[in-house]
Design brief:
about 200 residues, alpha/beta, Nucleotidyltransferase, domain 5, 5-stranded mixed beta sheet, 5 strands
Amino acid sequence: MKELLPYHSKGLIEAGCDEAGRGCLAGPVVAAAVILNPKKKITGLNDSKQINLKKRMMLKKEVESNALAYGVGIVSNTEIDEINILNASFLAMHRALDQLDNQKIEHLIIDGNRFNPYRKINHTCIVKGDAIYQSIAAASILAKTHRDEIMLELSQTFDCYDWKNNKGYPTKKHRNALVKHGKSIHHRNSFNLFGHKEQLDLFD
């Protein structure tokens, strides 16, 4: 596996940002911001989607123990419905960055191609940046693991939607459960929850 780059702009205090859950039908969107410590190298950082659960949880602990600073921001499904998922993703990143107040951030690197400016700090958007830069990959891992934990907790009460496995993404089982049981208070009403009927294997 190719080693990711340690920074985008050398010599600056740089925070990497990424989000998780943007394409889900239920639950919050969660973002993380991470400032890595150049003196404490974390081996194996990569896009969270390319790492198995065991490795993600190990890296989560390493990031939280060794980073100079990190933050996690959460935007609820009701907020997503009010401001749309794109703005909710930006807001989640801003909330994560708010937790880095003790650090003088000089540059932000954002996974994706768009971002709402944060406190007049210069930023650079990088498509698939979580597979290029270590700090974005670290943020990707924190965002995904924190969001997965939220969905696992919600699944204990709403087990019919199979969130413990799909984490709120539009799998066939999730869509079928929506048809059979209707939506929950954690679903995003602004999303196309029920999909196309011909795509569903409906229960009897």
